[in-house]
């Protein structure tokens, strides 16, 4: 992975902070809007610098939470009205659309 810049970290942080309650975005959604080459960069940023953000609103493109956070993430999403079936969130209807930059 190429070095991640402070600007990229701040861009991802601001996008995650902008996801409203009751909505989710995928790592790929955020990468695309932030102009990053891979959703994995978003994942790395989220692992290292997201404790003060609504991190639980970021899920995989399959609608599944991060493996190591499944229980906690689904609990937090459920508290916002986002339900899952067999551990998977149906993205249709709850996927956040970021405004054009």
Structure overview:
Keywords: DNA damage, Methyltransferase, Transferase. This is DNA methyltransferase. It comes from Mycobacterium spongiae. GO terms for molecular function: methyltransferase activity. InterPro entries: ATL_DNA_repair, MethylDNA_cys_MeTrfase_DNA-bd, MethylDNA_cys_MeTrfase_DNAb, WH-like_DNA-bd_sf. With 101 residues, the chain is mainly α. It has a single domain, classed as Arc Repressor Mutant, subunit A (Orthogonal Bundle), CATH 1.10.10. It contains 4 helices and 4 strands, in the order αβααβαββ. The strands form 2 sheets. Strands 1-2 form a two-stranded parallel sheet. It has a two-stranded antiparallel ribbon with strand order 3-4. Helix 1 crosses helix 2 and helix 2 crosses helix 3. The longest helix has 12 residues. It is globular, with a radius of gyration of 13 Å. 25% of the residues are buried.
Give the secondary structure arrangement, pairings included.
Blueprint: H1 6-17, E1 25-26, H2 27-34, H3 39-48, E2 58-59, H4 70-79, E3 84-85, E4 88-89
Parallel strand pairs: 1-2
Antiparallel strand pairs: 3-4
The CATH class turns out to be Mainly Alpha
Strands in their spatial order, largest beta sheet: 1-2
| Number of discrete helical segments | 4
CATH topology: Arc Repressor Mutant, subunit A
Strand content: 5-15%
Q: Overall pLDDT, averaged?
A: 94
The outline comes out as globular
Second rung of CATH, namely the architecture: Orthogonal Bundle
**What characterizes the major β-sheet?**
2 strands, parallel
Rg calculated over all Cα atoms: 13 Å
């Amino acid at each position: 992975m190429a070095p991640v810049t402070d600007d990229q970290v701040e861009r991802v942080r601001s996008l995650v902070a902008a996801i409203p309650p009751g909505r989710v975005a995928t790592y790929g959604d955020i990468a695309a809007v932030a102009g990053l080459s891979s959703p994995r960069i978003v994942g790395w940023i989220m692992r290292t610098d997201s404790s003060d953000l609504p991190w639980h609103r970021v899920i995989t493109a399959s609608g599944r939470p991060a493996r190591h956070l499944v229980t906690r993430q689904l609990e937090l999403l459920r508290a916002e009205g986002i339900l899952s079936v067999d551990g998977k969130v149906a993205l249709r209807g709850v996927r956040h659309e970021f405004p054009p930059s």
